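Hi U.,

Before I forget, here's the chain from the pilot set. I'm dumping it here mostly so it's searchable later in email.
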Amino acid sequence: MEIFRGRNYDVSNEILAPGFVLRNPALPPEFTHGPTGVKKFALVVADSSPEYEVSNHETISKKDMVLIRWRFTGILRQEMLGIQPSQKPMIITRFDPFRIRENSKIAEMWQKFSIGSWP
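Structure:
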């Protein structure tokens, strides 16, 4: 969350394992491997919607698994991953389960998101 919400891109080296894998079929491969890939992804989001906000709604953990439910709100100023720019605010609701393994770092994460707000 801090990588996107706080725009603290360098924290990815601290919290993600070197072999980290982001399992999201909507993302190109250069965004899905290692801390560097996640930084690239976060920078594309920031460039596309400079005034975006991320809010965390829930965090649930059990053993080595953590699930966060969060929401992205922003106005896309340029195309982002196939989503066309608009002057209207966009909401993306996400669920991100992830596994903590290597030296207490995040080893892998799965993402599922929908455009729009859920009740």
